[in-house]
Automatic annotation (TrEMBL):
UniProt entry keywords in alphabetical sequence: Membrane, Transmembrane, Transmembrane helix
Organism: Lentithecium fluviatile CBS 122367
Full protein name: Chalcone isomerase domain-containing protein
Residues covered by the Chalcone isomerase domain: 204-439
Leader peptide range in chain numbering: none
Pfam families: Chalcone_2 (PF16035)
Length: 458
């Protein structure tokens, strides 16, 4: 074909948007159409076999891709776990390997440090010290905190110079173990009424032990609680604790002290020991008080719910034991008598319900209990529970403690006994740290002869 004829067949102008013509592909096969029925069946079988093989290959590809993805995720998880483990182990290794400066170098740094640190003193002032290099928090209830002779922590007036623990206007302090409420006073004075005319006066109470109340698995701190014993009743408590182990002794030897410690920490024996002490009346009874200080802002409703739940669990436990004893008595044809601590109907009568209603009413409608405020629960020799509150008052010079306000009283001794057992006896106490520290205080007073104890806190 000549070039002239080819040019005549081509388009001179072509639309740019016209679809591109697709080449026509013809299916070429060497197979000839089947001629017989057997050939047709053989061809169908062959094609079905090929489709099955293709499907199997497709499934193998999917499984392989899934295995690769899973292996990638596993490697990623392992690397993340390794990183988390190293981030926890590395600080411990650094702490172990990092050498602290020797004491002489540290003292040299303190002596070479300038007295006036400028802005640093305004941001982070040095603690007040007397003869000890230990640091202390600046204030306690409007007084400065210093460390006096004998390594005793005291709170003294800001104007006093070189105060001592024997000064009249100083307060000896005991560390609590938390920075929110760092100190508890070793002795407190609480209002009381004496004589037939109920003359108002003050009585001194000595700290026996303290601890932090924690809740939930996160161990969130709620308040610090301390058990105080009236100083004039310490000999009665001492005598009863000694008689628990050795009625003929005036003080306990090391082996007997270990026996008393085990009894006070045992779930069953601790309840029996403290119920025996709390059930005493008259001259043998012991005046005690719990001092509760919130470590963060809370309200009376929250504190009330905690005490009410604890009392309810104790009464339910007593009823359960009572039911078990009744069933045991019926099984043995009433050949046994019920033990005295678990009397039938002890917490089932109407008077106990009214007493619990009065206890609940002590804290209703009281509002907030800010951090640092003080709630006092006292138990008299007759078993009467009194509640007092000392709030925090804000002034131009800062915060100071207000006056004690009486919240009310509950005369049924069962209520105060149950509240005391929440911290002292049983399987689950409100604060295990407080119970252990109180037990240490009990061991500290029984190692001295009866009548010579001065209420030392370990």
């Amino acid at each position: 074909m000549t070039p002239a004829r080819l040019a005549a067949r081509r388009h001179i102008f072509r639309c740019l948007h016209a679809p591109t013509p697709r080449p026509q592909l013809r299916h070429l096969t060497n197979e000839s159409s089947p001629k017989t029925r057997l050939e047709q069946e053989a061809l169908n079988y062959t094609r079905a076999r090929e489709r099955a093989v293709a499907a199997d290959l497709h499934n193998v590809s999917l499984h392989r891709a899934e295995a690769i993805r899973r292996a990638k995720l596993i490697r990623r998880r392992n690397w993340l776990a390794l990183g988390a483990a190293l981030s926890m182990i590395a600080p411990m290794i650094l702490v172990k390997m990092w050498d602290l400066p020797p004491p002489e170098d540290k003292e040299k740094q303190e002596t070479n440090e300038p007295k006036n640190r400028g802005v640093i003193d305004m941001i982070k002032p040095k603690p007040t010290q007397t003869d000890s290099p230990r640091a202390a928090i600046d204030g306690f209830q409007g007084k400065k905190v210093v460390i006096a002779a004998g390594d005793k922590i005291i709170a003294a007036p800001a104007s006093s110079e070189n105060p001592t623990a024997s000064d009249v206007d100083t307060i000896e302090l005991v560390p609590t173990g938390t920075s929110y409420v760092p100190y508890f006073p070793k002795t407190i004075n609480l209002p009381t009424s004496t004589g037939p005319e109920a003359v108002e006066s003050e009585a001194e109470y000595t700290l026996l032990g303290l601890g932090i109340r924690k809740v939930s698995f996160l161990r969130v701190q709620v308040y610090v609680v301390g058990l105080y014993v009236r100083t004039s009743s310490l000999h009665s408590l001492q005598n009863q604790l000694i008689n628990t182990v050795n009625p003929t002794a005036s003080a306990l030897i090391p082996g007997e002290k270990d026996e008393l410690r085990k009894a006070l920490l045992d779930p069953e024996k601790s309840t029996q020991v403290w119920e025996s002490i709390l059930s005493r009346t008259g001259s043998d009874a012991v005046d005690m008080a719990f001092r509760v200080v919130p470590v963060r802002g809370t309200d009376f409703k929250h504190l009330q719910d905690g005490w009410m739940r604890g009392i309810a669990s104790r009464t339910d436990e007593v009823r359960r034991k009572q039911a078990d004893l009744v069933r045991q008595q019926a099984a043995e044809k009433k050949q046994i008598s019920l033990p005295k601590p678990v009397e039938e109907g002890e917490f089932s009568d109407e008077s106990f319900g009214l007493a619990m209603k009065d206890f609940k009413g002590l804290f209703q409608g009281r509002g907030k209990a800010p951090k640092g405020s003080v709630i006092i629960l006292t138990r008299s020799k007759e078993g009467t529970l009194n509640a007092m509150y000392q709030g925090v008052v804000k002034t131009n010079k800062g915060e100071k403690m207000g006056e004690f306000a009486k919240l009310g009283e509950v005369k049924d001794e069962r209520v105060s006994r149950l509240v005391w057992l929440l911290y002292l006896g049983g399987q689950n106490v409100s604060s295990e740290d407080a119970r252990k520290n109180i037990v240490d205080g009990c061991i500290g007073i029984v190692e001295r002869p009866v009548g010579t104890v001065e209420g030392m806190v370990q």
